[in-house]
């Protein structure tokens, strides 16, 4: 009880932080900038587009409508599974390295996906690589950002 009371008194006597202090105080500004940049990296990563168009990508790869919908569900399961795996290894691997590795992998496989989708009319076997690129892209997203 003494520890709880001491912590409560310390909390009560702590100075109040206002929103403007986040911009003015350099000790608070850097954490704010880091949080904003991390959120922007997640939002601008393109994951929403990949998930939204994954069914169309799978259909253009030659899968039937039903199979492409099942493949989209499968990518969702891969996303959940990799999220759990990354939660288990994040303390050993480090948050920064996992985030940067995830973003780097997403960059590589999004470029591969664009190349495969652009050339799959002339080179039909690239459609299978586009399926692989979507799945690996989602794996990197789940383990990074």
From TrEMBL:
The chain crosses the membrane at residues 70-90, 102-120, 126-144. The keyword Acetylation does not apply. The keyword Transmembrane applies. InterPro entries: GLUT, MFS_dom, MFS_sugar_transport-like, MFS_trans_sf, Sugar_transporter_CS. PROSITE patterns: MFS (PS50850), SUGAR_TRANSPORT_1 (PS00216). It comes from the Eukaryota. Residues 1-145 form the Major facilitator superfamily (MFS) profile domain. GO terms for cellular component: membrane. GO terms for molecular function: hexose transmembrane transporter activity. Keywords: Membrane, Transmembrane, Transmembrane helix, Transport. It is found in: Membrane. It is a multi-pass membrane protein. PANTHER family: FACILITATED GLUCOSE TRANSPORTER PROTEIN 1 (PTHR23503:SF8), SOLUTE CARRIER FAMILY 2 (PTHR23503). This is Major facilitator superfamily (MFS) profile domain-containing protein. It comes from Elysia chlorotica. The lineage of its organism: Eukaryota, Metazoa, Spiralia, Lophotrochozoa, Mollusca.
């Amino acid at each position: 009880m003494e520890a709880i009371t001491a912590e409560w008194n310390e909390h009560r006597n702590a100075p109040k932080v206002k929103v403007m202090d986040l911009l003015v105080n350099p000790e608070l500004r850097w954490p704010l900038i880091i949080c904003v940049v991390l959120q922007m990296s997640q939002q601008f990563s393109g994951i929403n587009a990949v998930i939204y168009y994954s069914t169309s990508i799978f259909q253009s790869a030659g899968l039937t409508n039903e199979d492409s919908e099942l493949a989209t569900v499968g990518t969702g399961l891969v996303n959940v599974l990799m999220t759990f795996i990354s939660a288990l290894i994040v303390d050993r691997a480090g948050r920064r390295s996992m985030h940067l590795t995830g973003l780097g992998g997403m960059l590589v496989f999004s470029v591969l996906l664009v190349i495969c989708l652009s050339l799959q009319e002339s080179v039909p076997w690239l459609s299978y690589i586009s399926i692989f690129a979507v799945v690996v892209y989602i794996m990197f997203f789940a383990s990074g950002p």
